[in-house]
Amino acid sequence: MNLILLGPPGSGKGTQAGILSTRTGWNDLGTGDLLRRLVREGNEKALLAKSYMEKGELVPDTLMVELLFAESGDLGDGLILDGFPRTLNQADTLTQRMRARNLTLDAVLLIDVSDQEVERRLLQRSACSTCGKIFNQKLVVCPACGAQIETRTDDNAETIRKRLQVYHQQTDPLVTYYQQQGLLRRICGEGTIDEISRRIRQALGIA
Ligand code: ADP
Ligand code: ZN
Question: Which of 5, 31, 151 to mutate to test the pocket of ligand 1 (most atoms within 8 A of CB)?
């Protein structure tokens, strides 16, 4: 099964992709985490992406596609895409690449969370820039790896508003795009992590 998780920043896509991946063994491909890892590793192309990420803007399509497909070269069936596609252009590229590899897209899950809830969540979370884990409270030391925690540079009020604006402008159109293909399934993203993960499994018929 191959699927896309769609939803605003802070909707819990990454968390849910991780849970689903553990349960099913499908590959979890989170583009935000991928980009941050490549930046940490000093990847030259990723460093070009860094300034966009810090501003809360999307990395330009060509660069994004290049970085993603260089890293996911031989990914086969059993894929959870979290954070890609985010523009119609990226969605078209994905459709073509999947077709070329004889892969089918089985579902697009839209995790619905209000803008107000997004702002609340992002302002109170901390993300470890050493191991990449995200926690739903402000922490000083990472419980996972012990490193000092710095707030993600894009988790400040101004950049959060920008990311939401970018989401509505560039990613909202994907809802219609996948609705027309009969692939879209809407999931309420407010509730506990467990509740949402159950809703996701229900929507996929793997409860
Ligand atoms: P969030 O979804 O919380 O905004 P992510 O960790 O998924 O955060 O992504 C962080 C940043 O990485 C985005 O703001 C954007 O700059 C960049 N990014 C991630 N995925 C994409 C994509 N598919 N296209 C362009 N930029 C992307
Ligand atoms: Zn850590």
Answer: 31
